[in-house]
Amino acid sequence: MMYVNVTKYFLFFMMFTLFSYGAADTRKTAADAEVKDTIVVRGMVLYGQVTNFGPERLSFKLLYSEGINHIAYKDIESINTEHTYHISFKRIDIEGRVVAIEDNEYIKVIEGENERTIKIADIDNFVMSEIDDSSFENRIRNKFPYTKGSIHIGLENESGSSDKNNVDVVMKLRHKQAEHEILFAIDYEFETTETPTTPEVESEDELVAALIYRNHFKNNQYYYASILGDYDRPRQIKNRYIPAVGYGYRFRLDKSRWIEPSIGLAYATTKYTGDEYSDKNFAAAALGLEGKYQFDDLSYINTLIVDGRILYFPRLEDPSADWISRANLNFSVPLFDFFSVRLAFGWINDSNPDPNVGNNKETTKLLFGLDF
Question: 30-53, pLDDT tens digit by residue?
Fold first, then answer.
């Protein structure tokens, strides 16, 4: 059954993204072409708009096209932007035009009558200034330059031998300024089930939230403090809290391709619904593995982002007696500047005392939402 559900979700995920790209409007009015950025790539002149400066590649949206091209700095012979950009780096915010790329590591920016040289690796945020784009979305990006986030929603209504109504909301926020980074994530799922012979019952009522602070004290290294909280009524979990502290290291291929192990100490407290099972508290190791890989310049969908995370909290005294683990794997396709579709797989495994519930839980979700 799990294989059938995964296949169904995956086929719908791929068909939706293909049709969404196929339906994109690739024409713009002549007025949109009046202000444009220009880059020269191996002798070829390209017009459009710069969307981002990555560690190794420039992201560029061509004129009359909705797709994003990712171009290696070594292939760019010159650049000149007519658009004005809001650039945030090292707690500094400026607005200016990019006029050069130097040594594949720096950009030159004209700010009024002054010229600045900025290291690309130091850029926290790069968005178009409100001077050239006064849309609501761009005003939000300019007002909160160090904060990024996403909100995705999945809805399902099923009728047949049983009636099911399901809603899933996933929200993530990230605020990074210099070495300080704060992450907040929340995932809420609710489902009711009703059959001709049974009344409506809650078959899903689950919330997971996490708040994480990281101090990037050295390149690719950080200390972290976090608290993870959740409840899952059908699995008899009234509430659970896991504060943790530790150390992490990011093995970076580039800004969009990395893997990150972490290690630390945690303390898990769990309260169960009813009086049948006693509360469970234990000190635990905090083991984590997180990664991301972005595929660019793909046929039809252009960009595919694969990311995942594993968290494992085994009891220090006896790991086989008590443990809590969570894992997820996501496939995301950005369709437009703000809109994306995501196929998400989740796995939960813990030492649940109820034999009717068991230790394992698997989920598959198809979500649509906004990235900002």
Answer: 444 467 999 999 999 999 999 989
Q: And the tokens for 114?
A: 């002054």
CATH number of domain containing 347 = 2.40.230.20
| Closest of 98, 85, 99, 63 to residue 132, by C-alpha | 85
Phi, psi of 30, rounded to the nearest 5 degrees = -65, -30
Q: Is 362 among the domain residues?
A: yes
Whether 110 contacts 97, CB under 8 Å: yes
327 plus 310 within the same structural domain: yes
Structure-token match 């690739």, residue found: 26
* Residues 34/49, Cβ–Cβ less than 8 Å: no
| Per-residue model confidence (pLDDT) at position 27 | 40
> pLDDT tens digit string along 288-344?
999 999 887 777 787 899 999 999 999 999 999 999 999 999 999 988 767 899 999
Tokens of 304: 């595919």
Per-residue model confidence as pLDDT tens digits over 209-220? 999 999 999 888
Q: How far is CA 317 from CA 20, 113, 213, in A?
A: 52, 65, 27
* C-alpha Rg value of the chain to the nearest Å: 24
Residue 5 pLDDT: 52
First to last CA, the chain: 36
Q: Give the Cα-Cα-Cα angle 259, 264, 270 (nearest 5 degrees).
A: 110
* Chosen domain end from 107, 141, 175: 141
Statement: residue 20 has pLDDT above 80: no
**Co-location of 136 and 160 in the same domain:** no
Report the SS3 class of residue 121.
helix
CA atoms within 13 Å, Cβ hemisphere of 149:
20
What residues are paired with 288 via a beta bridge?
Answer: 262, 311
Task: Judge if 137 and 258 occupy the same domain.
Answer: no
Q: What pTM, to 2 d.p., does this model score?
A: 0.76
